[in-house]
Automatic annotation (TrEMBL):
<dbReference type="InterPro" id="IPR003245">
    <property type="entry name" value="Phytocyanin_dom"/>
</dbReference>
<keyword id="KW-1015">Disulfide bond</keyword>
<dbReference type="GO" id="GO:0005886">
    <property type="term" value="C:plasma membrane"/>
</dbReference>
<keyword id="KW-0336">GPI-anchor</keyword>
<keyword id="KW-0812">Transmembrane</keyword>
<feature type="signal peptide">
    <location>
        <begin position="1"/>
        <end position="29"/>
    </location>
</feature>
<keyword id="KW-1133">Transmembrane helix</keyword>
<keyword id="KW-1003">Cell membrane</keyword>
<dbReference type="InterPro" id="IPR039391">
    <property type="entry name" value="Phytocyanin-like"/>
</dbReference>
<keyword id="KW-0325">Glycoprotein</keyword>
<dbReference type="GO" id="GO:0009055">
    <property type="term" value="F:electron transfer activity"/>
</dbReference>
<keyword id="KW-0472">Membrane</keyword>
<feature type="region of interest" description="Disordered">
    <location>
        <begin position="140"/>
        <end position="163"/>
    </location>
</feature>
<dbReference type="Pfam" id="PF02298">
    <property type="entry name" value="Cu_bind_like"/>
</dbReference>
<keyword id="KW-0449">Lipoprotein</keyword>
<feature type="transmembrane region" description="Helical">
    <location>
        <begin position="178"/>
        <end position="196"/>
    </location>
</feature>
<dbReference type="InterPro" id="IPR041846">
    <property type="entry name" value="ENL_dom"/>
</dbReference>
Amino acid sequence: MASNFSLPKLCKNALFSLLLMFMVMVVAAASFQFNVGGRERGWIKPTGNESETYNEWAARNRFHVGDSLYFKYENDSVLVVNKTSYSKCSVSNPIFKFEDGETVFQFHRYGFFYFISGERGHCKAGQRLIVRVMVHPAATPSPEPAPSPQGDGSGNEGGGWDSFWGPPPPNSTIKLTVASYFMTALGGMLVIMYLLM
């Protein structure tokens, strides 16, 4: 009785599966989730007895594109705002507002991100955070246009959507990292192996 079972094909399938699983693990390990305020404290109105401010905490860490912030809170909110709203503790025009008690915010670009509490008086008491997402050392930042002296026309001095998010960096100016070359080579090997099966 003939069998359709082929040992070489089984080995190829197992190797293909292992390589695919490895690629998924490398991509997952490339990003990191930070707990804002630590696991015990979380996102709360400061009392003045804290060992460090949210911004001091942020200055001790290095954030990269793909990383995320985890905000744990009760009876509060997290607002993503522009620089002007951050400076004035203005809750009137947030870019994003989260109220679910367990917010995860992922960084999709490099640059500055501004977070404040949406509760009255919390921001002025110190419940606010600036995060600088680093440009990978192998990346060349694209030049940004100078701001208009008239502002953005919305009455918010430099505070519109475009001034917060900025133009996306052109792909041609980003140099590939060693990890990018490795992942590209690994993907090519997977395609070749699949075609040979």
